[in-house]
Amino acid sequence: MKHIIPYSLFLIPFVANAGVIGEVREGLDVYVGRTTAYVADDRSVGELGGEVYPSLHSHDTRDIIYVPDDMYIRAGVGSDIEFDDRIVAQIGFGWNASSYVRLELDGQYHSFYDADVNSWQGGGTLYFDLARRYVRTGDIIRRRSFVPFIGIGAGIGAYDSEFFAAPRGVAGVNFMFTDTFGVDLSYQYSIMLGDGWDKNMSDVMLSARFNF
To answer: How confident is the model at residue 33 (pLDDT cuts 50, 70, 90)?
Structure first.
């Protein structure tokens, strides 16, 4: 018995981390809704396009928070940060995994002013929204129109007949004008890593986002 108790203490971190692992895998808001909401059918919890989180202790519909629209498309243009080196065009297709996490696959085109070459790349970015889109104030549910975000990702493309990998970091803000339409203003830093060469790119992007 005296050996069992000390050894069992090693299980405490694993038990404590079980909830943390669930939060990371599902998204914190989805995890909390799943574990605290009162629902008649568990299958209705966790689907972002139809999530409602009624209070565990109340059946009043005023306690419902709705998280809509799990997919979106985005398209935009931009330039290097000094507006004198290249033009950038981008189109992306994204999935809102939770109120704070998005995954987007995109294609980018860079046209360089100082050389008769262009680059193409396809890639993916994991975005983290730093504020929840819908919030409840008393009995009122309101949409937050200004949401900052950050992202990290990578792409693979071609430049002047050379292939390259392009890790990237993104920071920006999203302005939502309606429940489904908004505009992103973002900064993207990426590195084109080729065979014995590399090129750093700092771009400012303006794009339109449509949720559906």
So the answer is: low
